[in-house]
UniProtKB/TrEMBL annotation:
Matching InterPro entries: KsgA/Erm, rRNA_Ade_Mease_Trfase_CS, rRNA_Ade_methylase_Trfase_N, SAM-dependent_MTases_sf
A GO MF term: rRNA (adenine-N6,N6-)-dimethyltransferase activity
Sorted UniProt keywords: Methyltransferase, RNA-binding, S-adenosyl-L-methionine, Transferase
Binding, S-adenosyl-L-methionine: 2, 4, 29, 50, 75, 91
Sequence similarity: Belongs to the class I-like SAM-binding methyltransferase superfamily. rRNA adenine N(6)-methyltransferase family.
Organism: Actinophytocola xinjiangensis
Annotated SUPFAM superfamilies: S-adenosyl-L-methionine-dependent methyltransferases
Protein name (Swiss-Prot/TrEMBL): Ribosomal RNA adenine methylase transferase N-terminal domain-containing protein
Pfam families membership: RrnaAD
Domain called Ribosomal RNA adenine methylase transferase N-terminal: residue spans: 9-174
Length: 259
């Protein structure tokens, strides 16, 4: 386990989260509580999730006098996530990053409001690429703003990992509500299934071709260009416009996407 030990990095993570007394924040993979301790000073309600029994015992002793800090002995891959809006500030174990991001970023409706995460550098670069490499990452990028804030050198951990890490900022896009998401999913599915076909064909199963061309044009995309040339923000704008038409009945989301 590589523990984040840089006080400067921790202070930036917690400071950037902008937490207050009305917030609920999770430290997933809390370890000895280095990040948890800083979160406790924000006034927010803190859930420190840790699976190692030795760390859990130490955390409970350390925060016994903090009535707004609760230590949860569980695995971050399985722990029940809150049913209300919450934030996450955590240094995620590299080996579980994808599993955890899937839990946080995939479900509809989304309960994660924002996150300040430490992840492996290469993963952060892939998640913030201009064109997501697959449908899953496109789904995440369409519903959350993912931004690489800064590089975190390996020397900031004890023991140092073989690669550098990154500070990844995550903010939910409030304009992508449940209805917009229901329209967006089939658009992205077809876009990634048929990347070389004209973009207007992706809309063919939902709306008339003339309307599809107009919506793509209004979103700043070329209706005749290949689907792969339409970026995520443009698909989101098209989905938002379609969601405003109450006569449209989008197909139900797959069960795997529903929380």
């Amino acid at each position: 386990m590589h523990l984040l030990s840089s006080r400067q990095v921790i202070d930036r993570l917690v400071g950037d989260a902008g937490l207050g007394a009305h917030d609920l924040v999770l430290d997933l993979g809390a370890g000895p509580g280095t990040i948890t301790a800083s979160l406790a000073h924000t006034g927010a309600r803190v859930l420190a999730v840790e699976r190692d029994a030795r760390y859990v015992a130490a955390l409970r002793r350390r925060f016994a006098g903090h009535d707004r800090v609760r230590v949860v002995h569980d695995d971050l891959r399985r722990v029940r996530l809150p049913r209300r809006d919450f934030a996450v500030v955590a240094s995620i174990p590299f080996a579980t990053s994808t599993v955890l991001l899937r839990r946080l970023l995939t479900p509809v409706p989304a309960r994660l409001a924002r996150a300040e995460l430490v992840v492996e550098w290469g993963l952060a670069r892939r998640l913030t690429a201009a064109r997501p490499r697959d449908l899953e990452q496109a789904w995440w990028a369409a519903r959350f703003e993912l931004r690489l804030a800064r590089r975190i050198p390996a020397r900031c951990f004890r023991p140092a990992p073989a690669v550098d890490a990154a500070h990844l900022k995550v903010h939910r896009r409030r304009e992508v509500d449940a209805r917009t998401a229901a329209v967006l999913w089939p658009l992205l599915t077809e876009a990634y299934r048929r990347p070389d076909e004209p973009a207007r064909h992706v809309l063919g199963d939902l709306v008339a071709h003339r309307l599809g061309r107009r919506l793509l044009h209004e979103a700043g995309a070329d209706p005749a260009g290949p689907t792969r040339s339409v970026h995520i923000g443009q698909w989101s704008r098209v989905a938002g416009a379609l969601a405003g038409d109450r006569a449209l009945r989008p197909p139900p989301l797959p069960k795997s996407l529903r929380s």
